[in-house]
Specification:
By secondary structure, the chain is mainly beta. It is built from five helices and 23 strands. 12% of the residues lie in helices and 54% in strands. Strand 18 and strand 19 form a beta hairpin.
Length: 444
């Protein structure tokens, strides 16, 4: 009897193990995925574990959604590691549980082992950008999006194309390579030393936009607050600007450009170390080794017409280009006022004879609306003849037909006056008969 009682615990343990094994077997038999396997295998879909139509697929990590899709068809592979999704009508990609990107696509593949979602022929919509790309990969573990192939879309203020684009979720950064951005803007062009036509009356004023093309080797946007461009080229009509790097504060609307900075158009060529554009203040500032070459606009008739003393004016004197160097140039382009300061020097090289005119001052202010230039501080000018003008301050009007120069403080002027030399009159000379020798006179 005692031996029988001691055998009860092992027997019960065996019964429990057998029951557990039977239960597992029954669960495997009632697995809905397992029941479809023979049917799909007979239909030539042996690698498909289960198929759903007109369904929604949601991927989660604990209680946080990673992505969600409404699709026409969803196939789960037999190893349960891959989802094949066709006809993605609506999808959402999440960043820390918050919707980040919305998309539509023809098809998508989700690899469960490597945790990435591959989408083809996709239309993406996010906060900073809307785009189309031929292929995109979303890595839900680190929330990174990569777009490849054909990429085109809109980025806040214009349409763009790119060769590569990626979003780094942890850093909240959007990075694009080889970007061509085309924007339409009604803002005035930022040009230096250019007189704009007078504004039209309000009843005639019409808002017009123009196309501005911007290309980058690399474009990066950080958290929708800062935009950084490298290898920058801007084409605004005939104006072309290049820089190694430009950084824009999107909220403050301030742009800083540095490195091989150059601006060219038919009227002016500019180079400097740094350019700052304050869009709200309508201000552009050049700093450091500022060089400005002003090329006055003139017609062919004006360029070939000789200048006489009767037709000479300040306008005709400015036919030749002027090279300006200074430390700082500020353009209030809405008020049309340009200010040059710091080691200011203007040099004009004349075609005839290769002579030059030079002007130095501490400061120059040009108002293109009134067409007046104010020169301030140790103003010293020398023309091609060597004539000089020195004054503390000079005000000049270059408006055609109303040219004048005003000096209100004591100054100094050196003028070279050409004097005509009087010709000496020659007295008529009379030929005298030679006198006879003394001997002959004595004989008479």
């Amino acid at each position: 009897m005692r031996n029988w009682r001691t055998a009860i615990p092992p027997v019960l343990a065996l019964i429990c193990i057998a029951g557990l094994a039977w239960s597992v077997n029954r669960l495997q038999q009632i697995d809905p995925f397992a029941r479809f396997n023979p049917l799909y295998a007979e239909a030539g879909m042996g690698n498909v574990l289960v198929r759903f139509t007109e369904t929604e697929v949601l991927a989660r990590q604990f209680d946080r959604p990673l992505w969600r899709m409404k699709v026409q068809r969803a196939d789960l592979s037999r190893d349960r590691q891959r989802w094949l999704l066709d006809g993605v009508r609506e999808a959402v990609l999440y960043d820390d549980g918050q919707p980040l990107w919305r998309l539509k696509a023809e098809r998508a593949v989700y690899e469960g082992a490597s945790r990435f979602l591959q989408v083809q022929e996709v239309h993406l919509q996010g906060k900073p950008v809307q785009l189309y790309c031929s292929q995109a990969i979303w890595r839900d573990q680190n929330r990174e999006l990569q777009c490849m192939g054909i990429i085109r879309g809109t980025l806040r203020d214009g349409m763009f194309t790119a060769q590569a684009l990626s979003y780094l979720g942890k850093e909240k950064r959007l990075v694009a390579e080889q970007v061509n951005l085309s924007v339409r803007t009604a803002q005035s062009p930022v040009a230096f030393l250019q007189a704009e036509p007078p504004p039209k009356p309000p009843e005639e004023k019409q808002t017009k936009t123009r196309r501005v093309e911007i290309t980058f080797q690399r474009l990066e946007e950080q958290q929708g607050k800062t935009r950084i461009g490298e290898g920058l080229t801007i084409r605004d009509g005939d104006t072309v600007m290049t820089a190694d790097r430009a950084e824009q504060d999107i909220e403050a609307q301030v742009i800083h450009a540095t490195g091989n900075l150059q601006v060219t158009d038919p009227r002016v060529e500019i180079s400097a170390d740094k350019l700052t554009i304050e869009l709200k203040e309508k201000r552009a500032v050049l700093e450091g080794n500022v060089k400005i070459l002003v090329k006055p606009k003139q017609s062919e008739e004006q360029s070939t017409q000789p200048v006489s003393e009767e037709t000479r004016s300040l306008k005709t004197e400015m036919r030749e280009p002027v090279q300006i160097t200074c430390d700082r140039a500020e353009n209030l382009y809405q008020k049309k006022i340009i200010t040059l300061t710091g080691n200011l020097k203007m040099v004009q090289l004349l075609k005839e004879g290769g002579k030059t005119r030079t002007l130095t001052a501490q400061k120059a202010v040009y108002n293109s609306r009134t067409e007046q230039v104010q020169l301030i501080g140790d103003v010293h000018g020398v023309d091609e003849k060597g004539q000089e003008l020195t004054a503390p301050e000079i005000l000049v009007s270059v408006k055609e037909g109303e040219e004048w120069l005003k000096i209100t403080q004591p100054g100094r002027m050196v003028i070279l006056v050409e004097e005509e030399e009087e010709e000496e009159t020659e007295q008529p000379t009379t030929t005298q008969q030679p006198s006879p020798p003394p001997a002959q006179q004595g004989q008479r």
